[in-house]
Structures are given as structure tokens and as C-alpha cells.
Amino acid sequence: MNAPTNGRAPLSSLLREGDFLALWCGQMISQIGDSFTFLALLITVNRLTGSTAAMGVMMISLTLPQLVFSLLAGVIVDRVDRKVVMIVSDLLRALLVLAFLTVRSADQIYIFYLVGFLLSSVSVFFWPAKSAMIPRIVKGGDRLLTANALSQTVRVVGLLVGPALAGFAIGWFGTSVAFVADSLTYVISAVAIITIKTSGSTVDEERVSLGMVWHRLADGFSFTMRDSTLVGIVVTLLVALLGVGAIEVLFVPYLQGEFGVGAEGLGFVQTTQGLGMLVGSVLLGYLATRYRLTRIIAWSTSMLGFAVTVCGLVSHFLLIPLCTFVAGLSLAPLNAALSTLMQRTVPDDKLGRVSSVVDTTMTLSYLLSMGGAASLGDALGIRAVFVGAGLVTALSALPALIMMKEPEIPSLEATIAGSGPLVQQSVEP
Q1: Alpha-carbon span 244 to 242, nearest angstrom
Q2: Residue 77, class by beta-carbon neighbours within 10 Å (0-12 exposed, 13-18 middle, 19+ buried)?
Q3: Is the pLDDT score of 41 beyond 80?
Q4: What is the CATH number of the domain that holds 259?
Q5: How many Å apart are CA 153 and CA 262, to the nearest integer?
């Protein structure tokens, strides 16, 4: 057991700060809206095409922008006002999601793919801007872990509340209302961000050019590769997502094929994962006072791999929600600890581009895993893929323990100014 050096702060103290509360509430509402759109897309694509291939293309169109634009987004975020990036992104997404309303038949399904790609492309710019704003808003590295844990509750609420509300609304009013509701939540999020008083501007005034973009991309990659902790984060996520990506593709066919689960059962399983994340967020407060971030990351990846492996071995459906609960229990501490470790390690002026290097690596691993999942499932059986994916995920604990080093909690000046590495030695999933 190690001394508590992980920078917890009382939840109430952060939620009393207007800027953080505005960001947190805006994102929570937007996350619920995203659940509406995601469920409506799945229902509509399945209803219009009845094709698993069409479902796969839909998932890839939502994921591919992260690989294509993530590095560029990091460069942009490091040199423009991050609040402006977030506001513009929300307003663009509010307009784009309404384009889904135009799809009425199977021959228009390409609109889903195109708009889905554009919607995700805009989101690629939003998330690194948000990640880079959090250390400024909480005003001190000693409270980053609590802030990131609270940020994780946004996804938890989305999983707990979003699917239930979306299912009810779609069942009563149809899929169109889901897209309109999501559009409104983006507008609400944009208004909330406008109220934030903390500056989102950067000190970098360099003009945008192709040479500048290439230089920044190279700098972000070079900085990441020179720091053992950042390399450890990259390798850990690379290995973990090689396992998790396969599960994303095969989970619904597995539940329907092996256990005959319908829409209600799928919703219940998703809710248990959200419940696990909620409990995990609460447990993080206990863990953070007693263990280092690197230990939390290693334990979380091991637990996630165990849950996936067991999921592929069980013979009764009632054990599946228990597995997804354990998976959710591990995801909340894992995401918060990884975000905090990266924010402490990277200076502010490089945080956007380094986050994008990490995100690009994650997406590449994720896409490779999704691409190979279907063929492996046919060749080996879905259960065998689950077991293998779980073991691969568990192995990602090794680089977390071996390669990552815990930095000291940075001062406020170092965090905001970004004048150099936060540790002498030498990110958001």
C-alpha cells in the first residue's frame, strides 16, 4: 500500500465551482442525448436493411474519424481557444444530427454513414479540447483525479438513464424524436460552455500552415515516445483495445445467438455496465487515497480482462449481467486514472497533441480488432474469441506496472503555463 498522492478533492468542492459544474452538467445532458441517437441509429439501420454488414459499416463510420483526424485535432486544440472549439463543435453537431431525419428507406442508408462520419469527425475536435480544459478549470493538479472521476459519471449516467429514456421515447414517438432530442442537448451543452469564465485561450500565436501542422504532429509523437509513462499508456491501451474491440462487434450476436436475448435483455445488460461504472466511480475515491495510479490502472485492466473471459465461458444468461457489471466496475477507475496520469505528465501546451497521439493509437488498435473479430468468430467460434480477447486485455496490466511511473502532483503554475514536463525525468481514453 502506498501513501496517498493521487490528488483527490471533495466532490462537493468541485461541484460548487460554477465553471466545472457548467461543463459537467452540459456534458451529462449531451451524453443522454447521444444515447438517443445511438439507439435510434441501430434500430433504424436494422429495420431498413436487416443486415449485420450494414451495422458493421455504421460502427466503422462512427469510429474511423478518430483515426483520420485525431492528430490534426490535437494540433488545432493546442493553438486555438479551447472553449471556442467546444462551442462550435456542439453547434455543428446539433445541426448534423438533424440530417438523420432525412433517411426514409434502405437506399438512403448511405446518409447515415456519411452524417455519422461527419458527426464523429466534429467530436474528435471536441474531446481533446475538453480534456485540456479540465486542468485549467479545476485550478490545480491536486484535484485532477476527482475531476476526472466526476467526468466519468457523465458516461455512467448516459448508460443508466439514456438507454431507458431513449427506449421509452422511441417506443412511443418513433426514432425521429430521438434525433431532435439529441440536437437540443448539444445546444444546451454549448450554452453551458459559454457560461464558463475560465479562459480557454492558448499562448501559441503561430500561424496555421502545412509545415506547422507537420511539425506539431512530429513534436507530439516525439514527446510521447521520449516519456516512459506515456509509452506505457500507449502500449497498455494498444493491447487492451485489441481485446475490447472484438467484443464490441460480437457482443450482440453472441447474446442473441447463444441466449436468444431480445432488445429488453440487451438494454438490461447495458444498464448493469452503467451501474458497475457508478459503483467504480465511488470506489475510486477509496482507492485513490491508498494506491498509486499505476496500480489502479493495472488492477482495472486485469479485472476487465477477467470479466470478458468469464463472459465467454458462462452457460446461463443471468451470469452475463454480472460480467458486464464487473467490466463497468473496472472501466470507471481505469479511465479516470489514465486521464489523470496523462494530464499530470504532459505540459499544458502539448496536452492536445499528445492526447491525439494516444487517441489515434487507441483507434487504430480498436479498428484492427473490430476488423478481425467477425472472421475469427466464424473460424474459432464467438466463445473462443471472447476468452482470447479477455486474456489479451488482462495482459495489458503488464506495461502499466513495468513502464509507467507516477509523477509528482504539479503546481498550479506548471499545470496552467505548461512551461515544461511536469516531471524531471524524462492520456483520455
Answers
A1: 6
A2: buried
A3: yes
A4: 1.20.1250.20
A5: 27
Helix, strand, coil percentages for the chain (3-state, nearest 5) = 80, 0, 20
Cell of 126: 471536441
Grid cell listed for 323:
460480467
Helices (H), 201-318: 210-226, 228-259, 263-288, 293-311
Structural domains in the chain (count): 1
Long-range contacts of 322-327 (CB under 8 A, 24+ apart): 322/272, 324/269, 324/270, 324/272, 324/273, 324/276, 325/272, 325/273, 325/275, 325/276, 325/279, 326/276, 327/273, 327/276
Q: Is residue 248 part of a domain?
A: yes
Sequence letter at residue 76: I
Q: Is residue 127 within 8 Å of 192, Cβ to Cβ?
A: no
Contact residues for 310 (Cβ-Cβ < 8 A; gap 6+):
319, 323, 326, 390
**pLDDT tens profile 153-170:** 777 777 677 766 776 777
CB 421 within 8 A of CB 347: yes
pLDDT digits (tens, 9 = 90+) for 215-234: 777 877 888 888 888 999 99
Residue 61 lies in a domain: yes
Query: What single string gives the DSSP state of each residue in 291-351?
Result: S-HHHHHHHHHHHHHHHHHHHTT-SSTTHHHHHHHHHHHHHHHHHHHHHHHHHHHS-HHHH
pLDDT tens sequence across 345-397: 888 777 767 877 887 788 888 888 877 776 787 778 889 989 999 999 999 99
Q: Contact at 8 Å (CB) between 162 and 35?
A: yes
Measured CA to CA, the distance from residue 291 to residue 285 in angstroms comes to: 11
What is the CB neighbour count within 10 angstroms for residue 400?
A: 30
Range of the domain at 145: 11-199+208-417
d(CA 217, CA 71): 6
pTM tops 0.90: no
